[in-house]
């Protein structure tokens, strides 16, 4: 794989810098991302405590922003107090989105009806505080689109993170004004059908992400993922789109800037 020789303006739209996988070398990882050319990282909250931790990490760096929310896996632990805490956290200047929220009908770590209830409630919170949403959808494409339509999510806006739907889901999400975020799985040798789909998606509606420490792209598959590796996603996207990687970096960065309303230093 082609080496990254030059700095590109890339935004990792979805990282989990708070997770224990980074406890030993978090600063090194963040500084390495910066050196590799990352313009910005959105570190995404998984629950109330994790969001607090994310803010502590972000406060130290001007190129890290935060999404606050409760992951579908953890919706069974939400109480009413959680909503007032989340709402308070949204007034922090580092918070740019509500996320990650959504449905995970693959692992079902919270009962489905509880996931649905808190997906809707967090969409309401996003509308109330005028922030875009970062959506997690695993094996729940139909339900996610239905809820987004019912909740008029086109008036909220946001990103489908690790987009894994088919063409009709992509169209539905694009119709709602949503952006689709592409993870490291796009680099895998066995991702042919996914690459064919992504090829057809409009670049002005795509973001790139790592979802680190998970979903490590080639050539590091199997190891811990980190924000610096988002460059490999941008490279693969460039190859699929037959464009220069710097152009892909520029457009996806512009998209991230627009949706999250982040100010970049250039
Ligand atoms: Ni995530």
3D architecture notes:
The chain has a single domain, classed as Metal-dependent hydrolases (TIM Barrel), CATH 3.20.20. Helix 8 crosses helix 9 (245-260). The chain is of the alpha/beta class and 266 residues long. Helices cover 40% and strands 17% of the residues. It has an 8-stranded parallel sheet. The protein is built from 9 helices and 8 strands. It is globular and about 45 Å long. It has helices at residues 26-36, 48-58, 80-89, 112-129, 141-150, 167-175, 192-200, 230-241, 245-260, and strands at residues 10-15, 38-44, 64-68, 95-104, 133-138, 158-160, 179-182, 206-208. Nickel (II) ion binds next to loops.
* Order of strands across the main sheet: 1-2-3-4-5-6-7-8
CATH architecture: Alpha-Beta Barrel
User: What is the top-level CATH class?
Assistant: Alpha Beta
According to CATH, what is the topology?
Answer: TIM Barrel
Mean of residue pLDDT? 94
Number of strands: 8
Beta percentage is 15-25%
CATH superfamily name? Metal-dependent hydrolases
**Rg estimate, integer Å:** 17 Å
Identify low-pLDDT runs.
Answer: 1-5
| Tally of discrete structural domains | 1
User: What characteristic shape results from the CA principal axes?
Assistant: globular
Q: What level of helicity do the residues show?
A: 25-40%
Present as ligands are: nickel (II) ion
Biggest sheet features? 8 strands, parallel
Q: What count of helical segments does DSSP give?
A: 9
What is the end-to-end distance?
A: 29 Å
Judged by helices, strands and strand pairing, the structural class is: alpha/beta
Write the element-wise H/E pattern from the N-terminal end onward. Answer: EHEHEHEHEHEHEHEHH
